[in-house]
## 1
Amino acid sequence: MAKTHLVLPLIFLLVLQRCDLFVDSAIGVNWGTLSSHKISPFVVVDLLKENKIGKVKLFDTDPAVLRALMGSGIEVMVGIPNDILGTLASSAATSDVWVSQNITRYMVKGGVNIRYIAVGNEPFLSSYQGQFQSFVLPAMANLQQSLAKANLAGYIKLVVPCNADAYQSASLPSQGMFRTELTQIMTQIVSFLNSNGSPFVVNIYPFLSLYQSSDFPQDYAFFEGSSHPVVDGQNVYYNAFDGNFDTLVAALSRIGYGQIPIAIGEVGWPTDGAPSANLSAARAFNQGLINHVLSNKGTPLRPGVPPVDVYLFGLLDEEQKNVLPGNFERHWGIFSFDGQAKYPLNLGLGNGGLKNAKNVQYLPPRWCVANPFQNLDGVGNHIKLACSMADCTTLYYGGSCNAIGEKGNISYAFNSYYQLQKQDAKSCDFDGLGMITYLDPSIGDCRFLVGVTDSSCSCVGCGFFCGFWIVTLWVFMYLKILGSL
Ligand SMILES: *[C@@H]1O[C@H](CO)[C@@H](O)[C@H](O)[C@H]1NC(C)=O
Ligand SMILES: *[C@@H]1O[C@H](CO)[C@@H](O)[C@H](O)[C@H]1NC(C)=O
Ligand SMILES: *[C@@H]1O[C@H](CO)[C@@H](O)[C@H](O)[C@H]1NC(C)=O
């Protein structure tokens, strides 16, 4: 009899845990963390759960992020940065240690559901000029051994996210082939993937095609049909995504692996920093993409076979990303840096629109602006310094703050820097040209941000809160059972 008292609440707890399960869907997100306005990883994991996002792709194995994912059930692809491929390639022992410290320790009950390890991130990008090329396969071989030793080789698969520039030179999809200097290594890698049942992971960006080429037909980047379809023999392509995907299928067929499953590692549309990077375009692209993938239509070369997984890029804006590709680079999030939805989007996961992050810990509502009573002549160097560290990308052509005037520009730069410095009063001085204000200086679509504290209080708070309720429920059930006997 004593046993039943314990068993029933246990069943109840198990039922509670099952609430965490997600719809089985191809749609996931990339969670990058190159931001100085980081919300707590626990808040981000709650955001994922609230939105029923059951798959996430990371670019590293940040312990703070992985700890927050523990017990969530969310499927995780972790990443190995390109710059450590060399050491993993050269030493089996290093690979063993890496796997035990960054993978195995999380593969426990209530741990992290790691399913994939991305070996490098676009390691064959042409602009890297081959510097990582020779490390990829040896690193994969070592890691596979390490996983096997840890009894994880059957559960966790190695993949290699590739940029479409590995194959995308063909004018017609059916003529797709890998870059000549990559043919051999691609053949070996795909053979490796194939023998382990891993998908080929590719990043596809119609936005970049549009951004980089003025004669790229605008409507071909989206999913609403195109007045410039690409006719390829009997196949007609109405959107760049399908065209790009089938170029890859053709390239894979050419090396003998036309049937290998394909996952999309990154795909998305930015919302700021270029004229074509705006909210309505991002919404149209991402919604069109999701609907297209979930329709299971596939492409002309793979009819009825959509990609196995599609990771949107990205979850949150990252304002410390390198802007070499363009000012849009810091604005790929479907949520802003603080987890607020930028536009309506139905992820097809059964919960309608996007839900915002809760319990975000903001700094106080204070901004730094140009002092209206000062002559601002000498402000140039201050702006340069502020914008070299903080984010000013929205000020430029095509950005949401491009038309706020000279004084607006100065205030924007001052505030970005002030928030980056966590509202340290000294950081708003600028030789007396700056001034702290309690009135939100945002103008129209141009948002003057308030930073967030990256305190982990909220997680402790939540852990405590949940713990409290579980204990209360336990006691309640226990008393109830006692009472009913
Ligand atoms: C691997 O895990 C260790 C231990 O948590 C951590 O210190 C290290 O930064 C991780 N390595 C990488 C490359 O993320
Ligand atoms: C947004 O981007 C789209 C697609 O690139 C473009 O056609 C449109 O004019 C842009 N909208 C605005 C308001 O700039
Ligand atoms: C504000 O700064 C941006 C970026 O430097 C520039 O394009 C714009 O012309 C500036 N506006 C004024 C009024 O100076």
## 2
Amino acid sequence: MSADPRRQVPRTDTLLADPQLAAAADRLGRELVKSAVQQVQQRIRDGALAPGDAVDAALAGLPSTAGSLRPVLNATGVLVHTNLGRAPLSPAAVEAVAAASGTTDVELDLGTGRRGPRGEAAIAALLAAVPAAEAALVVNNCAAALALVATALGGELVIARGELVEIGDGFRIPELLTATGARLREVGTTNRVTLDDYRDALSPDTGAVLKVHPSNFVVRGFTRAVPVAELAAGLGGSGVPLVADVGSGLLRPHPVLPEEPDLQTTLDDGADLVLASGDKLLGGPQAGLVLGRAHLVQRLRRHPLYRALRVDKTTLAALEATLRGPLPPVHQMLSADPAELRRRAGALAARLAGAGVDAVAVDAQARVGGGGAPEHPLPSAAVSLPGTFAAPLRAGTPPVVGYVAGDRTLLDLRSLPPSADETLAAAVLQVAR
Ligand SMILES: *Cc1c(COP(=O)(O)O)cnc(C)c1O
């Protein structure tokens, strides 16, 4: 004769008073713990759980942090994966974020006790990294930098038809620019534009000439673009600012990515302002960087819209530490040695095969991602598993995201630090069981 399970369900108050659950409520907040408790009560009512296991089950059902974003192992081979949060921060940047998270001297001069310039140290780090720039400004992302430029320099923006780019997920640069009220003066054709096209388009209404790096596609065949150096020389004397959106945020030329524009070279070539993202190839936090001539940067900083686009203290902290600290993960991944990647894949596959998993090491091609170097595959190595592993790996703890090729799941090692191999092996073994 079984008792009515509803009579045996422990009361919410009783469970929340349990010392372990009370401690969890102090850490995670009462609502999260209460919701875990209510789920446990339902399972007891359904007869799926013994009342004596209520506390343990509620503890097991709690998230590890009060936020729901979870760490994910990126085995996609896409180094800067927008859906996975783009650049992983370096340990130095993570520490700097933690240090700046409370009350901090972001806008206070501790020597004089007076208000100081906001984020001065991050700006100084940017200028040290890109000596060609006279001044710099940091906003929320590169889209915000474009919006600020279009609003503050505005009027008419001269831009090549081949550079009216969609970056991803419906984000179209020309639509962003016109949303600010600026007008576009399109020049050239899809495949070709000349210096004269730009020159002929200048008028007293011209606010700026804008060059946008076509980050995620290439045009081949009968094509012609005007490089920044030629454009700068050709516009010289017109007084019209030349603004170059390079997108990826490389500070200097990178030997592995010879085609990718960088901030220092673009300014050396004569751009008046250069714009980039902080969380692509720079390897830092989400941010929009504006570097170049002091009077133009000052115009942007004084514009009322800047106040709506400025970044918070944790972004400034992460950016400075990325610039001044050790090489960020994205750069370690970029320069990873293919032979070493193959060695890691071989060791992992051997270990998994030893445990009875159908795993082999294979050569693979990684990519920069995040709208960078679209045609530049990076030699890599992967662990190849049965195709059926992909979904349970994504659902595991921690989730592992690889990709499926034919009937195999591939876990590319270039987008993972070597320190993650142990966790990766454990995650695969968990799925195999
Ligand atoms: C990625 C990219 C952007 C957008 O940058 P966000 O930082 O994501 O706003 C703008 N322009 C170019 C050329 C890009 O590659």
